[in-house]
Amino acid sequence: MEIRPRDLIRALEKADWYVARQGKGSHVVLRNRERPGMLIIALHGGGKSVPSGTLRSILRDARITEDELRKLISR
Predict the structure, then answer these.
(1) In 3D, which of 69, 75, 71 has the Cα closest to residue 3?
(2) Residues 6+ apart with CB under 8 A from 32
(3) Is the dihedral of CA 65, 2, 43, 12 positive or negative?
(4) How many Å apart are CA 27 and CA 21, to the nearest integer?
(5) pLDDT per residue as tens digits for the range 26-70
(6) Taking 80 as the threshold, does the pLDDT of residue 20 lie above it?
(7) pTM score of the predicted model
(8) How many CA atoms lie within 13 Å of 72's alpha carbon, on the beta-carbon side?
């Protein structure tokens, strides 16, 4: 599955994650009020897709399947 970082962030926001901070750098930190921990999404890469292994890791940490992500994107 290919997805750009900004689109991934928008989809995660629909799944109750929120942008906790984004400093001067190129990383966005997302948190969820109901789950411990955080997700870190790198925005650098010139609009390229999130690498597949990185995407799988983010989805695992967010407890979201690829099918659920597809539904969130289409909303």
Answers:
(1) 69
(2) 16, 17, 18, 62
(3) negative
(4) 9
(5) 899 999 999 889 999 999 877 799 999 999 999 999 999 999 999
(6) yes
(7) 0.91
(8) 19
The set of residues, in sequence order, having a beta carbon less than 8 Å from that of 17 and lying 6+ positions away, is 30, 31, 32, 39, 62
Domain limits, the chain: 5-74
For residue 17, the cross-strand partners are 32
Nearest to 30 by CA among 58, 64, 1, 68: 58
* Phi, psi at 45, each rounded to 5°: 125, 5
Residue 57, pLDDT score: 97
Instruction: Supply the CATH classification number for the domain 5-74.
Output: 3.30.920.30
Report how far apart, in Å, the C-alpha atoms of 65 and of each of 13, 20, 23, 27, 55 are: 15, 22, 28, 22, 11
